[in-house]
Amino acid sequence: MTIDLANPDLYTTDARFGMWDEYIRSDAKVWSEPGFSPSGFWSVFSHRDVSAVLSPKAPFTSEYGMMIGFDAEHPDNSGGRMLVVSEGNWHSVLKRLIGPFLSRLRAPELRSVLQREVQEIVERLRTEDSTDIALSVGPRLPAAIVCEVIGVPLSEREQLIELTNHAFGGEESSFDKMTPAEAHTEILFYFHELIERRQREPGPDLVSALLADGRLTTEDVLINCDNVLIGGNETTRHSITGAFHALHAFPGALDALHADPDLMDRAVEEVVRWTSPAAHVLRVATEDCEIGGQEIHKGQPVVAWLSAANRDERLFPDPHRFVPDRAANRHLGFGNGPHHCLGAALARLELRELLRQLTAEVRAVNLRGEATWMRSNLVQGYSRLEVSLYWR
User: Fold this and answer.
1) Are 384 and 371 in contact (CB under 8 A)?
2) CB neighbours of 8 closer than 8 A, spacing ≥ 6?
């Protein structure tokens, strides 16, 4: 079976869910010929196969890159240096340095920032007849938290939020002020300046901690701050937007959470599963191996479709339904194995606080027009989600 699954046009409608259903039921392993990706790649979809590729003991590496387009012959220049595309001892070093800034240990420090940001979002929503959540709500909360962690001054956050929108907005015509590459270059210039400032005036932030360690070059600090910015913004923003989508599509969820706030933690996991904003991760085989009966040769890239695995009906009964009290929710929304998302704890806190305040004050979410998906094979996200809210 061959199809170029790198084609971003495949992911602009809900048709992807039917495609994934077919692949999962048949335990398909799909080969995509060179096209959008220079050398072609294998794809796996079922929860079992995706988990097998991402297992700590699996003969795969992320050091050539972690998304479609990279492979052994076309490696990511950050491979072996940036957290998300490193392995072994260096990966452990980076996890120990970056992890504490993204863990629950920092929750008390970030909780007041988080509550204030959510409160401001809710208050603004109250004043508007309708709001494009994808544009004005989704990006705000994670950006505020990530900027707090990195040490971006309050006065500079709007600039960084806009640049990340441009840099990682997929092939979106709405981001026409600059190309994604130009926006990403601007982000890197910004981090260069921030690093120079922190070298002169250290603070209690991630940039200062990375600089103080002594094992990282300034270039290493730069690319890992970029990694944290992308990881913290680009997935959580679409989970936040998708939470509004789910509350519209399954209106009983709001009432269920309002009646029983103890369901909140389960609901957070269900938001991550149902939205699954990280669409795929890529790995390259380090030896000849087999996944679900399919032979994979050393050096071949394999794409694990997380968003498909999270709709596998063998693990998630009625998988396309948002079930706020879903039990035993073994989703892969934060990945699996050694590269399980370090920011998962913060993402959960952000979603929990948002759901807590929404369910306390909102009785219904009504979609105005159609949800518009991004044209992207990497991020399962929204370019538009216009809603009206009805208050308790």
Assistant:
1) yes
2) 36, 170, 171, 375, 376, 377
Q: What does the pLDDT look like over 194-224, one tens digit per residue? A: 999 999 999 999 999 999 999 999 999 999 9
Full strand arrangement of the beta sheet holding 131-132: 131-132, 386-391, 362-367
Q: Please state whether the predicted TM-score (pTM) of the whole model is above 0.90.
A: yes
CA distance 102 to 104: 7
Which element (helix H / strand E) includes 372?
strand 372-373
Secondary structure percentages of the chain, helix, strand, coil, to 5: 50, 15, 35
Alpha carbon distance 30, 11 (integer Å): 17
Q: What are residue 379's DSSP bridge partners? A: 278
- Length of the chain measured in residues: 392
Separation between Cα atoms, residue 195 and residue 237, nearest integer Å: 26
Residue 181 or 388, more confident: 388
Phi, psi of 18 (to 5 degrees): -65, -40
Q: Which residue do the tokens 């369901």 mark?
A: 263
Cα–Cα dist 277/379, whole Å: 5
For tokens 């910015």, the residue is: 229
Q: How far apart are CA 318 and CA 313, in angstroms?
A: 6
Geometric angle at alpha carbon 60, from 55 and 63, rounded to 5°: 115
* Plot region of 101 (φ>0 → left; ψ -120 to 50 → alpha; else → beta): alpha
| CA 310 to each of CA 106, 279, 281, 388: distance values in angstroms, whole numbers, following the listed order | 29, 10, 14, 28
CA 348/CA 102 separation, integer angstroms = 11
What pairs with residue 44 in β-bridges? 29, 304
pLDDT at 351 exceeding the cut of 50: yes
Cα distances (Å, whole numbers) of residue 364 to 33, 124, 246, 373 = 46, 17, 11, 22
User: Could you give the residue ranges of the DSSP H alpha helices within 177-287?
Assistant: 180-200, 206-213, 218-234, 236-249, 252-259, 264-275
Distance (Å, whole) CA 344 – CA 96: 15
Q: Which two tokens stand for residue 275?
A: 């939205």
